[in-house]
Amino acid sequence: RDVPVKRYVVNLDAAPEEHFLPMCQDPDILELIPMLKKDAKDMITSLVPEEVLPLVDILTADLDQYLPQPFAGEMRGIANCTGIDLGEIVILNLAYDLTAF
Amino acid sequence: CTSIVAQDAKGTIWHGRNLDYGFGDFLRNITVMLDFQTKGQTLYTSTSYLGYVGALTGQRPNKFTITVDERDQGAWWMNALEALLNKKASLVSFLVRETLAEADTYDVAIQRLAYTPLIAPVYFIVGGANVAEGAVITRDRESALDIWTMNPAQGRWFVLETNYDHWEEPPADDNRRMPTMKAMNTTGQAGINASSMFQVSSTRPQFGHVVLSVPHVLNKGTTYTAIMSAAQPQVYNTWVRWPEG
Lengths: 101, 245
Description:
- The complex is a heterodimer of chains A (101) and B (245).
- Chain A is mainly alpha-helical.
- Chain A has helices at 21-24, 27-47, 53-61, 63-66, 71-82, 86-93, 95-99; strands at 3-4, 6-11.
- In chain A, helix 2 (27-47) packs across helix 6.
- By secondary structure, chain B is an alpha+beta fold.
């Protein structure tokens, strides 16, 4: 059951908000989104120290001030196309740095 | 995680990695490969997850390959302080993606990964496209603590990293380093290629037909295996692993 993974093109010439649109629009991915929403919440609750969550709220409220482009725009684009809360997308993207200690 | 950079007998550099993490089934379902293109040409490629914009595994074609292995040091608030007080500190996965996008040579990539301030400690494992280009960078938040390089001329034809500083013994209950070294030495420099790197990454402790439940190269937490060779960018592939069937 060692399965090669699906491959997508990210067009860096497009606006950051559009970088991950082709992946979001793939029917295989669309099918996964309800599961992703649920599992993302579980993962966040288990991984991130409670004390850190207020910091993430501050960061999410003014994403462009704290995160460089294209990352801030890409996260907004992913939140828009998946319907997942932007704060949750941000936390998942900070997961390594929040948990490597 | 386990990352290996090896030079085969012809001088080709190979880079293999297992990404081990919790939430395995969740991550296995959303693992993807991304070709980041400009003007229709691939600038760099990464293995990632749906919704994840950074890179923990990636390749700049014909230049270098990078993998990230977790390094747990200090307390959570040290990461938070670094994020709040050091405006130049980067997220680990963002630095990898920026390096893939902007560094034009193996040496530039090494310098950038070694000396850019980071929010969290980490191991960067880097492979190049030329002979003897392979290194493990042990990172603290501010800078590199150590850069351990391959030295085929003196018999060090591979470097490997799990999740412990290479100059210290790993804990007995998580010693994935020893079985990886054993598998590499059994394969030998002459036997190294994409297929054998995948086999090394798939090593499990077995007694007859019974797979033993001890930490190993391929383990319950392994979500994917990626094999790369910067000099042969078309080789790069990623397989989702289901170690428990």
